Amino acid sequence: MDDVARAACVGKGTLYRRFGDRASLAFALLDENERALQDACIRGEAPLGPGAPAAARLCAFGDAMLDHLESFYELLSEAERGANFRVGPYAFRRTHLYVLLREANPDCDAEFAAEALLSLLSPVLFRHLRDQGWSLDRIKAGWHTSVAGWLSAR
User: Fold this and answer.
1) Residue 146 confidence (pLDDT)
2) Tens digits of per-residue pLDDT, 66-103?
3) Measured in Å, how far apart are the chain's first and last C-alpha atoms?
């Protein structure tokens, strides 16, 4: 908060009055990037956007989210501390995965699968894996394997 206040040439109290807490400030700082990611999912080029099979879109979504985590881990981690699972970016991600999972495999429990897959994209797990020396490519491969498992589930 001190660094942000200093960069914005305002007092720390002004930030707290405007945003309430660090998580809200983190969401505000991420807003443009979050909107761009959501727009890419809704209107962007395949395979992340429409026009590709749902299975390819699910894999592309995970890759995009992991790249997003790689770039914005600190802010995403802070935002997640105050996040409710029903609001904000999480709600979009859950709904997006649910729709794609239903399309790709109507027999799987898409609601549970969406929640389970999103747990693999948590900033806490991501940082743990990176701190253990896992490459981004290895984590992405794990995402693809997990998606494939859900798509074959009955």
Assistant:
1) 97
2) 999 999 888 877 777 655 555 578 889 999 999 999 99
3) 48
On whether the pTM is more than 0.70, the answer is: yes
pLDDT digit string (tens) for 48-62? 999 999 999 999 999
Domain over 22-152 is classified CATH 1.10.357.10: yes
Write down the pLDDT at residue 153.
Answer: 79
81: left (phi over 0), alpha (psi -120 to 50) or beta: alpha
Domain ranges of the chain: 22-152
For 12-80, give the DSSP string: HHHHHHHHSSHHHHHHHHHHHHHHHHHHHHHHS-TTTSTTS-HHHHHHHHHHHHHHHHHHHHHHHHHHH
- Residue 152's alpha-carbon distances to 7, 12, 79, 98, in angstroms, are 50, 51, 33, 15
Spatial CA neighbour of 105 closest among 42, 70, 58: 58
Number of H helices, E strands in the chain: 8, 0
